[in-house]
Design brief:
single chain, 291 residues, alpha/beta, Rossmann fold, three-stranded parallel sheet, 18% strand, binds ligand L34
């Protein structure tokens, strides 16, 4: 069993980005600049956005954290977005999800200038991805593809079962893995809440990508020997015995599944850190494409 080290791979990618930033600065050009908008005080979102800002510093990017109160209206957020779209000192930005319930997420994502949409969530970027045109690939699926590539995991003709059909992970990874290419050409099944007999599907999966958010959902009897496990789930479970008052866990019952797996990503330290590294990568791409 190979434990896929997302943290180390993410650090490697960040080092590669840092080298590119050095080269940009040595030409007398300004550093790439990423901004993140965070509405409200969700604990997990604060952690993720904090990590994004720290990672910017690490690779030599400029960064801006724009924090807006929970009560921010949709109109106020849209006004902020219009401002960021016009800001020439900014290469890319993201609006951290989830947004408070009174704000229409779709409207917000549509308002982001696709050229600065380093999350790749805008319909035009998602469409470009589906059509295999040059674009920003959403950071989490991009990170998964990088792990598969850097660990040289064979996907040709393999049966991939994706659990979950979210716009951020399940749907895009299902598209990417079925595309032509060295780390594509897989046969992909997208499973979701209406899927009948999920176990029968996962039992014959060569690769399982679980993006559900239910701790311990994927158990040993659901997988075959030699399976590749990509665990995208990340849930905070309250636990008073822990320093932070919670621990983080994935969708996969790691202890029972790992012995059967050929490759497996841990949580934490798997896909999560890769999401952040690939957001930086997209910002660097924005810089190249827009200048
Ligand atoms: N707009 N919203 C937008 N873009 C995104 O790409 C995200 N996502 C998801 C939530 N909302 C978003 C993230 O950034 C999930 N996500 C994310 C980013 C980083 C990590 C997890 C999820 C991460 O760093 N995980 C660490 C543990 C962090 C912790 O201590 O909680 C890990 O090792 O998995």
């Amino acid at each position: 069993m190979v434990l896929i080290d997302g943290k180390a791979t993410a650090n490697q990618i960040k080092n590669e980005i840092a080298e590119e930033v050095k080269a940009i600065k040595s030409k007398g050009e300004r550093a790439p600049h990423l901004a993140a908008v965070l509405v409200g005080n969700d604990g997990a979102s604060l952690t993720y956005v904090g990590s994004k800002v720290r990672s910017c510093e690490k690779v030599g990017f400029d960064s801006s954290l724009i924090r807006l109160p929970e009560e921010t209206t949709e109109a106020e957020l849209l006004a902020k977005i219009a401002e960021l779209n016009q800001d020439d000192t900014l290469d890319g930005y993201i609006v951290q999800l989830p947004l408070p319930k009174h704000i229409d997420e779709e409207k917000v994502l549509l308002a982001i200038d696709p050229k600065k949409d380093v999350d790749g969530f805008h319909p035009s970027n998602f469409g470009r991805m589906a059509l295999e045109l040059e674009t920003f690939i959403p950071a989490t699926p991009f990170g998964i593809m990088q792990l598969i590539e850097r660990y040289d995991i064979d996907t040709q003709g393999k049966h991939v079962v994706v659990i979950g059909r979210s716009h951020i992970v399940g749907r895009p990874i299902s598209i990417l893995m079925s595309q032509k290419g060295a780390y594509g050409n897989a046969t992909v099944t997208v499973a979701h809440s209406r899927t009948k007999d999920l176990k029968a599907l996962t039992q014959q999966a060569d690769i399982i990508v679980s993006a559900l958010g239910v701790p311990g959902f994927v158990t040993a009897e659901m997988v075959k020997d030699g399976v590749v496990i990509i665990d995208v789930g990340i849930t905070r479970v309250e636990d008073a015995s822990k320093e932070k008052g919670y621990y983080i866990t994935g969708d996969v019952d790691f202890d029972s599944v790992a012995p059967k797996a050929s490759y497996i990503t841990p949580v934490p330290g798997g896909v999560g850190p890769m999401t952040i590294a690939m957001l930086l990568k997209n910002t660097l791409l924005a810089r190249k494409w827009n200048s």
